[in-house]
């Protein structure tokens, strides 16, 4: 409408005044607007024609462009959404109920690796696999413990924790972040020293979109052995999956730190004609060679029956292809491919603090078997995660957590009714899981954003409203996050439906 064109004209004018170099901007009149908008929308559930589209998409080429975007949006009272990789489960980086603009960081994706220092600076618009590729280009013995899905953005992932196959050895991506550059609400660029320890604490795990725009992260690289070993062993219910999974809940969190065995649950055809069964795939990486792994498994988890023929020895860099569902021996260039596998889905997460009895597991199977395309993943914690205190950084799920559960339902058919059906299925599973998962709070992973935990219209939550999701994502760190937010962004400029509230602002 005409009011949006006036807003656009004002912002465009402001942007050109605040930048020495041209800033690439897409208005709805631009023929590429739609493709840029859609490019990194990972959850197709949020690509409907009825959602409000951004007034503008700003795609900064330099840090100063981000500064200009913040200054001008604030001056004209317009909400911004920051997008790095676009994988937000609830689409909060690109949808809104009120007029808004997107600051999309996909052009800011340089990675500079310093092998001597064993550090790197990575810009937020890079994907995690671009980071892995650049590290691998420079060194065969250095790596980084971030996510397993190749196309996830560094900006969103590092804002909320970031875990992958080296979690038990080295903790989260955020446990290895040693500096950052952030644009604050005044449009200033701050680093670790100038932002101070409170803000630096908050941006490591406190979730994206609440404190400013993180431009880049300085990370400490970690040692990886020249050979790592991968395996996936799959068992159906008929092959005794239930007892094995139960055994895994006792064993996996206590294995040597070098060994990470997660379980991926999907449906498969049963031996009984026309029936489905649960397939539990034990999917693993060991930081060491196959011979050593076989010794460890024989001693600690013989029930799984791992044999030499199940093992693939490769480099750490190539293991990232494996977890990204590419052939281990395939081209490493796949790591630079930003094309995302997309889906229409709804997901939830849990933290588990005591082993789930077999009867509890059987109730899960029963529910999974009612859906067409359910997926559930058990990710073991323990190891390094137990050694870091809950308040070291804003991410709080540490000692006492045996494993994390992520469950997801995806579907192909369109329509509101279909979505409703699948979403109520996952909510029912959530209710079922209550006795088996963490309580007070029933915790969740902020990077697996779940709007069912609570939300505020246009990010205007009070302290108490924000506690609904804040306590689950951040446990006892929620209070400090509110404190940091109130100090650095009292007027609540950086906000979204599940952001950290400011108590300095009288809503
Ligand atoms: P996106 O751009 O959507 O941003 C997510 C949130 O952060 C939004 O609120 C956004 O505004 C904010 N934000 C983005 N960039 C910012 C910046 N530069 N500064 C401040 N705020 C910013 N997680 C994990 O730990 N390990 C894993 O293996 C996986 N695997 C995985 C697979 C798939 C298919 C999906 C869809 C997701 C995952 N995740 C994951 C979860 C993932 O870490 C989470 O969705 C991240 O927030 C995504 O980051 P993006 O930059 O892609 O998202």
UniProtKB/TrEMBL annotation:
GO molecular function, one term: FAD binding
Gene3D superfamilies membership: 3.30.465.10, 3.40.462.20, Uridine Diphospho-n-acetylenolpyruvylglucosamine Reductase, domain 2
Superkingdom of origin organism: Eukaryota
Keyword Acetylation: no
Key word Oxidoreductase present: no
Domain FAD-binding PCMH-type: from-to ranges: 50-224
Cofactor: FAD
InterPro entries: BBE, FAD-bd_PCMH, FAD-bd_PCMH-like_sf, FAD-bd_PCMH_sub1, FAD-bd_PCMH_sub2, Oxid_FAD_bind_N
Keyword list, A-Z: Disulfide bond, FAD, Flavoprotein, Glycoprotein, Signal
Coiled-coil ranges per UniProt: none
Family note: Belongs to the oxygen-dependent FAD-linked oxidoreductase family.
Protein name: FAD linked oxidase
